[in-house]
Amino acid sequence: MKNQLQEAVKGNITPEMEQVAADEGVSAEYVREETAAGRIIIARGRFNDKKVVGIGKGLRTKINASIGTSSDVCDVEHEKRKAMVAEREGADTLMELSAAGDLDEIRREVLSVSSLPVGNVPLYQAFCETIRKHRDPSKLDPEFLFELIERQCEDGIGFMAIHCGINLFTIERMEKQGYRYGGLCSKGGTLMIQWMMKNNRENPLYEHFDRVCDILKKYDTVLSLGNGIRAGAIHDSLDRAQMAELILNCELAETGRKQGCQTMVEGPGHVPLDEIEANIILQKKMSGDAPYYMLGPLPTDIGAGWDHITAAIGAAQSSMYGADLICYITPAEHLALPNEEDVAIGVKAARLAAHIGDVVKLKGRADKRDKQISKDRRDFKWNRQFENMLFPEDARAVLESRKSVSDKGCSMCGELCALKNAEVTLNRFLEGDKLNS
Ligand code: SF4
Question: pTM for this one?
Fold first, then answer.
């Protein structure tokens, strides 16, 4: 299987690059150039019928849905249904983040029902199985970890979040800082820090970064540099520990690229609205414009129950400022393992947020549907409106359930429909060539 980065550097346009170009309305040469420079990554499944997704500069902001078991709720059929709901609702990528059950089996089962590029976090299985065997995560054998990474790549994992940016330097920054309002909120990151402190050893994923890249580039699995010290509270945003990890991840993104491994950088967790732009500028500048996979960001800590909205507000901003892939947040965030309904709501909220950002980021391209729908709304062309809506079925259900008695418009304003009245009185202003273009 061809490595997209290496092919791009050689000047070759692959069928995957052509597919991304066609999906995005850009030229294949543009996709090749940006892939060669590491500003676009191409994630895909391993098998023929899988989707290909371009993530990065000049492309639509993509959204990821995460699923996976926990030790409290462990049902592989439930996770498979969630994977299918995510795809049906329009997620671009899926992360299989199971942390309980037969993890090889769950991964393979989920891969079998999804045509999306599927990502994962190898540290979860590594620590879960180590804890099962030794009852102690600090007994993790690094050789086992590398063996697992290869096994997961072989199974068809399209991108992997790997926590390479936690090293002894980042831990020292955290210790010297001496506080964290939100503690640590990355499952894999926290266990790796625990392992390093207990064994007084460097993170093997940092120490043997070349080996990580060698495995991933062989399978063309995209390396997503994990965010183990992300902020779990808005008051921890941009703190020295988080920045230390970001600096390292940006450095590693450059190293990974040079080694022929498609690479993106993850961040940042909880971030107040006025720090989102700075966060993205720092990531882009330090990494040479590597694609940025943003978890959230959540711009407040008090929205539990409605955190899909909290995250959507942050995600719209981050998409506008240059985030390339956004991880959805569901209404169950901070409360419970999401169910199928949570997944559907989370995907919709994230898609809406990504599009709101793209209207600004990709002005003239992403906002074409907005312009068309405005004119169709003005002209009461309902069917054409549905074609351009993000959620036509939801919209149609509301319209049909409370129909207007009026011949035009809807039951919101009835006879006082402003659009209908404007049509009569202001026709001459509405038919100008400029407005209809
Ligand atoms: S009735 Fe009101 S909300 Fe409905 S189409 Fe007319 S102006 Fe818009």
Answer: 0.95
